[in-house]
Design brief:
seven-stranded parallel β-sheet; about 55% helix; about 10% strand; alpha/beta; 29 strands; 47 helices
């Protein structure tokens, strides 16, 4: 009421926006005449001019009128579509970063071309985001004509690594007869698609590419540009319905599917608690439908504890004891799966897989999985295979991804009810545009007169043409809701409504909120013998075809929510869909064609003719077509037997694409080796058609498949039928498009070139089109489409979308919603109030099957929806506050990672040196400056960890095992006595060992061992006890080990001690000689006489003790003179020296590559761990409320602490892995270079390196038979090979010498390699 009052006083703000846009629309219109005189080249020159003016300082707003007028003219020329004035307004608002609400059928696809072109003038790239791959390819291919006319490039990205560039001169091989909007996508790399001026794609793929870019380890693997501007089609679906959908790149986790299976059994057959809150529970669980949460009662906990075998309740075991807390993870998910998530409502099961159903659209979300173990729990509940749970490697929600764009805009049919959310979360304004019809009426363009009529107690608005006094346009008639006492009565009322409306000849669309309810309505309509069509998530793939025909006279269609969204419902039906249905019904199908071919192969031509004569769907000219196709393949097979498939393709494709013998052979070898990108680049460099790549793959697969089916007529018939039926199917679609597009020449061409399609089909399709037009007029006069809502959705926007299917572009239409007090929405928010209201006065005696139609009820329901929307918005807004923490951390991490990857403003040497400096300083501080406090802290931590709080029992064995590295003498303590100590007394006793360590210099020795975690200094004591396993040569082996070990110790002494400790040369030599003597004595006292496994352990222990003593003495005499600062300087200098050694060994370029990879891997490794920890924190943080702490505040504090820990761990990771990975990097680079050279040499020599079909490893196969000197040259010249290409091939082939790794460096013929012809 208040809003309406304000609107009356202040005026409609949206109307003011429309009025302010009119002058710009007039400017655009004024430019049209001049642009109409331009040639195509002049229009492209105009685009270049606009780009230059922008580069010289003009703003996009200043260029807008010219740019929009240019696009409007290009659209008229290339697509035949002219932007309406209201569409120009929509384009302006999209450019300004608004969400534009446009009704169904108002041409959002065309509107998007205006701001896309304008913003593409910046050269930074713009994106058009759609909800599925088909729309991305269709809309990009359709609107691509406009952009191509104006000289801009268009790219497209999709799942399964699909990426392509729009090229009207390119046609997908084998797809010449398919929908023209889909066939002009020339395959490209992902990066090339993003480098286009405009890129179409689906929301999830844009997000996944962003994550992949932030996992890339080299600049060349980056594909996306900066995120500057994007328009999102169906923006409400992407930014609200799917906003919280996480895009996750995962790796396998450790959790087992067995746990989910057994907990699925434990939670079955539990009883819901129906007692009031103050009463004793009478069931096992409480279910809160409002918050969609479930929890066990005390009764339920007791029951579950009895069912879990590892718990013994009689012995005091509890499910929530810390020992068993991990089980609650599986229990909580099992409860949700069993009692909250319903089959055919939230998900369906198809082909042994659980597939999520989108709550808002009713579409299947193939490939998506519920997170945090819920999906696995549902799989266990349904008894399907439980896929291994995964751990997150990288993740982002669609909400957070699209908030990264500098400017964002969106289009949809319904957005106003979510305007607050668009504003608060995305800072996007929402502007509802009038329909073109409404704009015409409001501006009195046609002089129409508004009239109001009473129809079924409702007011129908009609716009009448005064010259004919007949209706020109209608406004949709929305009837009041009907509310029933229970769901059964409501469903029966829906059936009566369908009967009543269909009896008049009008089409009916019944919208349901779940698969389950759609199947109930389906059953009731079947019982009532009312013909109808069902569309729900289970037959999702047919949605466009079914919804397109929902406007036929008398048609009844059941559709879940917004299934078929994006497909217009045309009154009278969609002629293209009806024609396809006609041809599908009256022409042959693939099994019949297979049967015909098999008969021909088995019994000959006469038997095949007999089948044709008996079947009206088969034409006589099919048989010659089959014979000709088989003869063509057989002819190719004869040549293939001689020269193999590659040899055959070399000749055929070389001729088709005008390539020389060596050129086509090289291109095909790149294709067969999988180097498709390289093959396309090779062809582009020669200015040849890159379609050759896809054509080569298609023909290779076809001919190899044809080879495989030889000898089996059944398989051969299937193979031929598949090829021929695909051609025939595409030809049918081409014929339909030609006839409906009034292209008689193209239709005649299809009939003449494709057997089995006669001229009669042209007439039939033409008649069908006329029939559809007559039917459209009849349905229009009868009142148009009637939409029935079987239940109110919790979001008014979804209800409005369903209503919007009626009254498209001024057509007549109506809607009515049917509700019951048992509906989810009523039960959650309005049920009790309505029941109370209906139980009073006269309403108390109304039967359940009598409808209630009162305006107050509609307002109560709308109020309930607003409350649900507010509740959901509050949840999402609250989640955003949590997400913002993670998002800021993600941005900081990814920005740092990107800087390292690109080498921008990052000094690799300094970053790594700083990490080492910090690590060395920490080690020196721990083991020299503050040794006693450091070790005391470690002791207290370990003692507390292994002390039971309740009984103060100390596990001394565990403590000794943990502290043995710091306190070697701990093993000399009496275990029984130590275990009896109190905590404090044990700590004091252990501190005595610490003081002893400091006195005898053991701390210095421990320091060097700690350094050894990232840079091995002192070599580890060799295990001489392992000599016991040798049968002979023990003495010589011991001597070899001694020499090597002593040399390594001396190397360290010379490089580190001698360079950084100031002492006389004589003293330094004396110290070394004494230590060397002690080491030699230790080796000498290890006897190999009678050495066995039994005696080896004792002798090794004694040897280790003696060797450690010698090393300790060496260090004490040299390093004890250094203070902490001197020792720190010495260690840093030693690290730098070792780094320089590696830099010189592997070269500057590879050393920098290694540094980059090291830094990136350190960030990635710790970020993955952080994501896992953050998920755990998110699940647990709600418990903070129990302690009267704000979970949100605690989450921010703890996540900040965790993030700081992650930052520190990254530095530690760099240090710990540097010297261990640099050697691996060198070996990896050498191996990669050898593999690449091997692959190249093999390919150039005419071999393929392929994996063995059985067993491990690879084998070499010739791609073409070996050609003898006197054989005909494979190039087809007719000359002998020795007089043609033999000299070239010999010169091109490398020598047959063997490389260092044992592989041939020329023609690969090494022994042991299996070669096949």
């Amino acid at each position: 009421m208040f809003k309406k009052l304000v609107s009356k006083i202040m005026g409609d703000p949206n109307q003011k926006i429309i009025e302010n846009l009119k002058p710009i629309v007039q400017q655009v219109a004024a430019l049209e005449p001049a642009l109409q005189q331009m040639s195509g080249d002049e229009m492209r020159a105009k685009t270049a001019e606009l780009k230059e003016r922008y580069a010289n300082g003009k703003s996009l707003e200043e260029l807008l009128p010219e740019a929009f007028a240019l696009v409007r003219e290009a659209s008229v020329r290339s697509t035949g579509l002219r932007h309406y004035d209201v569409q120009i307004m929509g384009g302006i608002l999209l450019h300004r970063g608004d969400v534009v609400e446009m009704r169904t059928g108002e041409g959002k696809t065309l509107v998007g071309t205006l701001p896309l072109f304008l913003n593409a003038l910046t050269g930074q790239g713009v994106h058009l985001v759609t909800v599925n791959e088909y729309l991305a390819r269709r809309d990009g291919g359709w609107m691509g004509k406009i952009f191509h006319t104006l000289g801009l490039t268009v790219g497209c990205i999709g799942p399964q690594k699909f990426s392509a560039l729009y090229d009207p001169d390119y046609v997908n091989p084998g797809a010449e007869l398919e929908d023209e909007r889909l066939v002009h996508w020339r395959p490209s790399t992902r990066k090339q698609a993003y480098l286009a001026d405009i890129t179409y794609g689906i929301s999830s793929e844009f997000g996944f590419d962003y994550l992949r870019d932030n996992m890339a380890t080299s600049r060349e693997k980056l594909v996306q540009r900066d995120l500057v501007y994007a328009i999102i089609d169906e923006v409400d679906n992407v930014l609200i319905d799917e906003a919280r959908t996480p895009l996750i790149i995962s790796g396998p986790a450790d959790r087992s599917g067995k746990e989910y299976s057994r907990f699925a059994e434990y939670v079955r057959r539990l009883k819901r608690n129906t007692a009031e809150e103050e009463e004793e529970p009478n069931g096992h669980y409480d279910l809160d439908e409002k918050s969609r949460s479930i929890s066990l009662t005390e009764m339920g906990i007791a029951e579950i504890e009895q069912r879990i075998p590892e718990l013994d309740p009689d012995a005091g075991d509890s499910l929530y004891d810390p020992r068993f807390y991990h089980l609650t993870y599986y229990l909580d998910n099992a409860l949700k799966a069993q009692y909250l998530y319903k089959r055919d409502v939230q998900y369906v099961v198809q082909n042994g897989e659980v597939i999520i159903v989108d709550d808002f659209t009713g579409r299947l979300m193939a490939g998506r999985r519920y997170s945090e173990g819920l999906h696995e729990a549902i799989e266990a509940k349904e008894g399907v295979q439980i896929k291994r749970e995964t751990v997150t490697v990288a993740t982002i929600t669609l909400q957070n991804y699209f908030r990264l764009f500098e400017k964002l805009a969106g289009m949809t049919g319904t957005a106003l009810t979510d305007a607050e959310e668009f504003d608060k979360i995305y800072e996007l304004g929402v502007t509802p545009l009038p329909t073109n019809v409404q704009y015409i009426v409001d501006n009195n363009v046609l002089g129409l007169v508004e009239k109001k009529e009473k129809v079924e107690n409702a007011e129908q608005v009609v716009y009448v043409d005064p010259t004919t006094n007949k209706p020109r346009f209608y406004k949709r008639l929305d009837h009041a809701d009907q509310i029933y006492g229970n769901e059964a009565a409501k469903d029966q009322a829906i059936i009566r409504e369908v009967k009543r409306v269909v009896a008049t000849g009008r089409p009916v669309l019944v919208g349901t909120t779940s698969v389950e309810h759609s199947e109930t309505i389906d059953r009731l309509l079947t019982e009532a013998k009312i013909p109808h069509t069902v569309l729900n998530a289970k037959i999702h793939q047919s949605e466009a075809l079914i919804v397109a025909q929902a406007g036929r006279k008398g048609a009844v269609t059941i559709s879940t929510n917004m299934a078929g969204r994006g497909t217009d419902i045309l009154l009278g039906g969609n002629p293209e869909g009806l024609a396809a249905e006609l041809l599908e019904r009256e022409m042959f199908k693939r099994p019949l064609l297979t049967q015909l071919i098999f008969k021909h192969l088995e019994e000959g031509e006469e038997a095949a003719k007999e089948i044709i004569s008996r079947n009206s769907k088969l034409d006589a000219d099919l048989l010659p077509w089959i014979v000709a196709e088989k003869a063509r393949l057989d002819e190719a097979l004869v040549e293939i037997e001689e020269v193999q498939v590659m040899g055959y393709l070399t000749r055929v494709l070389g001729e088709s694409y005008d390539l020389g013998y060596n050129e086509i052979r090289h291109a095909l070898r790149l294709v067969t080796s999988g180097s498709l990108g390289e093959a396309r680049e090779y062809l582009e460099d020669m200015d040849k058609d890159v379609a050759l790549v896809e054509e080569a793959i298609r023909l290779r697969d076809m001919y190899m498949g044809y080879q495989r089916v030889q000898g089996d007529n059944g398989l051969l018939a299937q193979f031929l039928a598949e090829i021929l039926f695909e051609k025939h199917y595409n030809a049918r679609a081409a014929l339909i498009r030609a006839v409906l597009g009034n292209d008689k020449a193209e239709a005649a061409k299809v009939v003449q070139t494709v057997p089995g399609i006669s001229e009669k089909w042209i007439q039939k399709i033409d008649d069908l089109q006329k029939q559809t037009e007559r039917e459209r007029r009849e349905v229009w006069e009868l009142g148009g489409l009637h939409v029935i809502g079987s239940e109110r959705h919790e979001s008014r926007r979804i209800d409005n979308q369903l209503r919007g299917r009626a009254a498209r572009q001024g057509d007549p239409g109506s809607s009515r919603f049917f509700l019951s007090l048992e509906d989810d929405l009523m039960r959650r928010f309005g049920g009790e109030r309505l029941k109370s209201w209906m139980s009073k006065g006269l309403l108390a005696n109304i039967p359940d099957d009598m409808p209630l139609e009162f305006g107050v009820l509609d307002r109560m329901i709308e109020s309930a929806q607003e409350r649900v929307e507010g509740y959901n918005f509050d949840i999402r807004k609250n989640i955003v506050e949590y997400d913002d923490v993670m998002n800021r951390q993600r941005m900081a991490t990814y920005n740092e990672r990107r800087a390292i990857l690109l080498g921008e403003g990052v000094d690799y040497d300094k970053r790594i040196d700083d990490a080492f400096a910090t690590a060395v300083a920490q080690i020196v501080d721990n083991y020299v400056e503050n040794y006693v406090p450091y070790v005391r802290g470690e002791i207290e931590r370990v003692v507390d960890e292994f002390t039971t709080d309740a009984t103060e029992t100390i596990n001394f064995n565990a403590i000794a095992a943990r502290l043995r590295g710091l306190l070697p003498e701990i093993i000399t303590l009496d275990k029984t006595e130590a275990a009896a100590f109190s905590r404090d007394k044990l700590i004091e006793r252990l501190m005595l060992l610490v003081y002893e360590n400091e006195e005898n210099g053991a701390n210095i020795y421990q320091l060097l061992r700690a350094m050894g975690r990232f840079l091995p200094l002192l070599p580890p004591i060799p295990n001489l006890g392992s000599l016991a396993s040798r049968k002979s040569g023990q003495l010589q082996a011991k001597e070899n080990i001694r020499r090597e070990y002593v040399a390594r110790v001396q190397s360290f002494y010379d490089e580190f001690v001698a360079d950084h400790v100031e002492m006389p040369t004589a003293d330094r030599e004396r110290i070394w000689n004494e230590s060397e003597e002690q080491l030699n004595q230790a080796f000498g006292q290890f006897s190999v006489d009678n050495l066995s496994v039994k005696t080896a352990e004792y002798r090794q222990t004694r040897f280790s003790s003696q060797a450690n003593a010698a090393l300790r003495n060496l260090l004490l005499e040299t390093l004890s003179a250094l203070d902490g600062d001197q020792l720190e300087v010495a260690l840093k200098a030693y690290v730098s020296k070792q780094q320089e050694k590696w830099r010189n060994q592997i070269g500057e370029e590879e050393y920098r590559n290694f540094q980059r990879l090291l830094l990136l891997n350190a960030i990635d490794r710790e970020w993955r761990d952080y994501l896992t920890a953050a998920d755990d924190l998110r699940r647990e943080i709600g418990l903070e409320a129990v302690g009267q702490r704000d979970p949100k505040v605690q989450y921010k504090i703890r996540s900040a602490q965790m993030f700081n820990d992650m930052r520190n761990n990254i530095e530690q990771n760099i240090v710990e892995r540097f010297f261990f990975q640099v050697e691996q990097h060198r070996a990896f680079v050498q191996q990669q270079e050898a593999e690449t050279a091997y692959q190249t040499q093999a390919r150039d020599a005419g071999y393929q390196v392929v994996k063995r079909e059985k067993g491990k490893g690879v084998e070499l196969r010739r791609d073409m038979p070996k050609v003898g000197r006197n054989d005909p040259c494979p190039c087809g010249s007719g000359k002998k090979y020795k007089h043609c290409h033999m000299k070239e091939d010999t010169a091109a082939s490398p020598s047959t010498s063997t490389s260092a790794n044992g592989r041939p460096s020329g023609t690969p013929t090494s022994s042991g390699k299996k070669r096949r012809r």
